[in-house]
Every structure is written in C-alpha cells, then in structure tokens.
C-alpha cells in the first residue's frame, strides 16, 4: 500500500494519487507528479478494455483525446448568446394570454378589407361577377379552338368548356336569389 511504481522511475504513494483524484473531481486523466517534478499520465483502461501505457508529459499538456473539438468561426458565432451581457434568457417574461376583452376588440373583416362584401346582396353579386369571368374565359378558349390557334386542347381545357352549362345555371340561380332580396 505504500508505493505505486511510475515507469521504473521515482515512486510516490497511492494516498497522494487518491488525494489528487478527489480534489480535482477526477475529470480527464490522472496526472502523477514525482518527487523530482516530472509529470506522468497514469496508465488507464480504454472503453474497449485495453490499457494505455503511462507516459511522461510536460506541464500544461492536453492529450489528443481530450483536446476541445475544433469549431469554425461560423460555429463559434452561432454558439454565442444573442442576449446582452449580463442578461439571461431565464429573465424573459412570457407574454400573457389574451383576455376575452382583447379578443372582442378584434376588427371585423370588413374593416380590414374595404372591398369586402358586407351585405348578402354584395356577396352574391361578387359570386355572379366571378362566374361571369369564368364564362368569358370559356368563350375565349372556344374562339381559340375554332380559329385553330389551339390545335389540340388539353384535358383540363376540355373539362373547362364542359362546365359552361353548370356555370350558366348557377348564374341564373344567383340572379333569382338576388332579386328576392
């Protein structure tokens, strides 16, 4: 129990090793300093079970396995805090939930958009205008097919032309509905 050999050089006591390990919290390797002042990294066991040899090192030496990982400048900049100096993110106050009064004060859609339909008559009028625009597009498409500008119409274009009757019926239904208002 008295002595621990270090590479056939000077001997130190095991008690000194335990004191060094406990005082530093034992992070990294175990450094052993001989009575002559030489520093050694003690033999240690790797994760796979093999043993590293004890080796003599200079003061301040950090083994390759324990070197901090290289970070580029971009990584260093992204790892920096974006908070002002002395301010921590724990001090951030979370916003309170909206109260019922604030939710009631929300403006209506008509106030947000000046041309939004307010009355049912205006809403139906907008639908009729939209359907009339679709009818004009269908008429233009039919003229292009008849004149030969559009030789082979696509499937979607033919489907658009086939919907002409349903669009005209919808326009008639909406005009009757608008007259009732």
UniProtKB/TrEMBL annotation:
GO MF, one example: RNA binding
UniProt record similarity statement: Belongs to the pym family.
InterPro entries: PYM1, WIBG_mago-bd, WIBG_N_sf
Compositional bias segments (type: Polar residues): 73-82
WIBG Mago-binding domain ranges (all copies): 37-63
Pfam family, one: Mago-bind
UniProt region (Disordered), positions on chain: 65-89
Superkingdom of the source species: Eukaryota
SMART domains to which the protein is assigned, alphabetical: Mago-bind
GO biological process entries: exon-exon junction complex disassembly
Name recorded for this polypeptide: Partner of Y14 and mago
A GO cellular-component term linked to this record: cytoplasm
Organism: Brugia malayi
